[in-house]
Amino acid sequence: MRSFVLPVVAVCAAGLIGVSISVTPALAQAPAGSTQTKVAVVNFQNAVLSTAEIQKALRDLQTKYKPRQDALQKGQQELSDIQTQLNASQGKLSSAGEADLQSRGQRKQTQLQRLSDDLQADIEAERDDAVRRASTRMQELLKKVAEEKGLDLIVDSAAAPFVKTGIEITDQVVAAYDKAYPAK
């Protein structure tokens, strides 16, 4: 049976400062009477973002906000046209005409900045809500996976500077999530 000692940094990250833990790979069986701790590692962020539910939510967001993104692009083209007009008419327009064109350009730029900011805020709010919901579900699922596999600890790979091959279960967790919470 393979085992290793969890690095000091990961032990500290787990809140076990000063304690050395002997660890066996998540899928290996510990002999009867053994006091070894079964640990698995999951890349939590990738697991959440790889779920079918989140992938569908991201596609739905693109579809939902495409008309606003298209309107923003159209407005940017209009602003570009105003700038082109302004450059082409240098010295040909009266000062009042040039000032009017500059004013239109500034108004359009301000309008586009507001539209862009609002669009970005709306997309981020909906995306963050979907990720937050999926993260909560993922945490609940990780507890179930730990119980089913007899794991004592699941560590996020972001907190572990080294992960031995064989204890990483991100793909298994994503598959279990997609089964438990199918994308609608």
General description of the model:
The chain is an alpha/beta fold. It folds into two domains: 4-49 and 137-180, Protein Binding, DinI Protein, Chain A, CATH 3.30.910; 68-135. The protein has helices at residues 8-13, 44-50, 52-88, 95-149, 170-180; strands at residues 4-5, 22-24, 37-42, 153-156. The chain has a four-stranded mixed β-sheet, covered by helices on one side.
Topology:
Blueprint: E1 4-5, H1 8-13, E2 22-24, E3 37-42, H2 44-50, H3 52-88, H4 95-149, E4 153-156, H5 170-180
Parallel strand pairs: 2-3, 3-4
Antiparallel strand pairs: 1-2
Helix pairs in contact: 2-4, 2-5, 3-4, 4-5
Short description:
Helices cover 63% and strands 8% of the residues. It has five helices and four strands.
Helix residue percentage: 55-70%
The topology string of helices and strands comes to EHEEHHHEH
Spans of at least 5 consecutive residues with low confidence: 1-28
Q: Under the CATH scheme, which architecture of the largest domain would be assigned?
A: 2-Layer Sandwich
Quaternary structure classification: single chain
Biggest sheet architecture: 4 strands, mixed
What is the tally of helical segments? 5
Which term fits the overall shape?
Answer: elongated
CATH C-level class of the largest domain: Alpha Beta
Count of extended strands = 4
Radius of gyration: 27 Å
How many domains would you count in the coordinates? 2
Average of pLDDT: 84
Structural class designation: alpha/beta
Could you name the CATH topology of the largest domain? Answer: Protein Binding, DinI Protein, Chain A
Strand content: 5-15%
Strands in their spatial order, largest beta sheet: 1-2-3-4
